Amino acid sequence: MESSSLRAVGWARTLPLDCEVKAARDWAREHLKTLGWTTSAPETVDAILLTVSELVTNAHRHAHSSAQLVMTYDDRCLHVSVHDGSSDLPTPREASTERLGGRGMFLVDALADTWESHPCPHGKSVSACFRAPAA
Question: 27-66, pLDDT tens digit by residue?
């Protein structure tokens, strides 16, 4: 019987409600540097950082809670997950000239290779996956 294993690296950080979203982006950028993506795949890094901004902003603004930001990399994908205290799952909305905001998940949908949300016992987790840049 052949066994297989998955090797992954990950990072986690809690961002309290009074924490600026810039802190989340800066933290994520430092970890993306360790993967070498800031020089080898700057467009992917930009997409990831915008996704981090949107997901953390949603946790703070809509869930009125801290955000637990987790990034894991398994040699195929970088997974960006944010957990917050609201059980309301996000849905992309059409852009409107009648209102400000409301485009965050629309952007995540456009930037990430895939994304999904799951209810949890104490809120929800929203995760976006970014395929590893070609070597």
Answer: 999 999 999 999 999 999 999 999 999 999 999 999 999 9
pTM: 0.89
Query: For residue 125, how many other CB atoms are within 10 A of its CB?
Result: 16
d(CA 34, CA 53): 20
Helix (H, G, I), strand (E, B) or coil at 82: strand
**Residue 53 and residue 78: Cα distance in Å, rounded?**
16
Comparing C-alpha atoms, which of 79, 61, 62 is closest to residue 70? 79
Residues 6+ apart with CB under 8 A from 69: 12, 13, 14, 15, 24, 27, 28, 52, 55, 56, 80, 81, 82
Tell me how far apart the alpha carbons of residues 33 and 80 are, in angstroms, rounded to a whole number. Answer: 15
- Locate tokens 């994520």: which residue? 28
The average pLDDT across 105-117 equals: 95
> Rounded CA gap, 53 and 133, in Å?
21
Helix (H) or strand (E) holding 71: strand 67-73
**Number of residues assigned to the chain:** 135
Backbone angles phi, psi at 56, to 5 degrees: -70, -40
